[in-house]
Amino acid sequence: MADLRAGLIGLGMMGRHHARVLRSLPGVELAAVADAGGDPHGVAGGLTVGQDVQHLIAAGLDYAVVAVPTVYHEPVALALAEAGVHAIIEKPLAQDTASAERVADAFASRGLVGAVGHIERYNPSLQHLRARLEHGELGDVYQVVTRRQGPFPARIADVGVVKDLATHDIDLTAWVTQSPFLSVAAQTALKSGREHEDLVAVVGKLADGTVTSHLVNWLSPLKERVTVVTGERGTFVADTLTADLTYYANGTVPTTWGSLAAFRGVSEGDMVRYAIPKPEPLRTEHEAFRDAVLGKDADIVTMSDGLATVRVAEAVLRSAETGETVHLR
């Protein structure tokens, strides 16, 4: 079978990594690239750098990767759908709910494979956490807490921290629990002089009753990417910077020191840091999308998933603006 012909539009910081992975992916040929701003990282190789999505379409592609700024996601995606080209679009799916709906509908109505690049789902620590939750190792899940903070990335100009970063946490929380968001209450702040928010704190509730909390900012010199899932039998901690997954079990040995036992609540048990394989998340994401285009069973972030995440992100911003809890269903 001939290799799938893939195209890439957007050759910036994320696009350069997509180009690298596409070139190394078995069964795939990177056949066309485009970016109106040229090729700042020199990833085109011998390919002509087109100016727009029409350059990709003219190359006769099987699928495309869209890594342009969020504001351009909708027009690029709609052009690809009209041309019958499968596509994976960097997160968020689109700049707002209405745009995301149009994109998702365009791909679904044409029977095309459409996905969203929520790369955190493919982090080994979260992949293994999800599998362990599926097998019931934590029992009932009570709470999901995420912390995603670090310095401001100068490359981001068109959205704030909610749509750029918190969408990771929204997506991964709904995915690991397999339960959608029911409500959110949020506060934001603008401290760096930009027009968009650079800090958000969100409290949420999922449809299954799980309570969530998300702290996300671009204001910290400390870079942190942590997901903490607490349940009936203990706590999982996934660090997606190091791809480590650690389990803190509730203890079965009674604490005999009375005052200490009263203070701690559940007793401490064993702590295990799992030895897990750590493939590159971006490569795993690309492998899954390639397989989906080939008609194989594949774990992709669907455009329906991406649309749900945009809806929650907009609810977060609406809550911060009004000071009220926003209910999603």
TrEMBL record:
Q: Which UniProt keywords apply?
A: NAD
One protein family per Pfam? GFO_IDH_MocA_C3
Positions of the Gfo/Idh/MocA-like oxidoreductase N-terminal domain:
5-118
Database matches in InterPro entries: Gfo/Idh/MocA-like_OxRdtase_N, Gfo/Idh/MocA_Oxidoreductases, GFO_IDH_MocA-like_dom, NAD(P)-bd_dom_sf
Q: Please give the Gene Ontology molecular function terms for this protein.
A: nucleotide binding
SUPFAM superfamilies per UniProt: Glyceraldehyde-3-phosphate dehydrogenase-like, C-terminal domain (SSF55347), NAD(P)-binding Rossmann-fold domains (SSF51735)
**GFO/IDH/MocA-like oxidoreductase domain mapped to chain residues:** 127-236
Q: What is this protein called?
A: Dehydrogenase
Q: To which species is this protein native? A: Cellulomonas composti
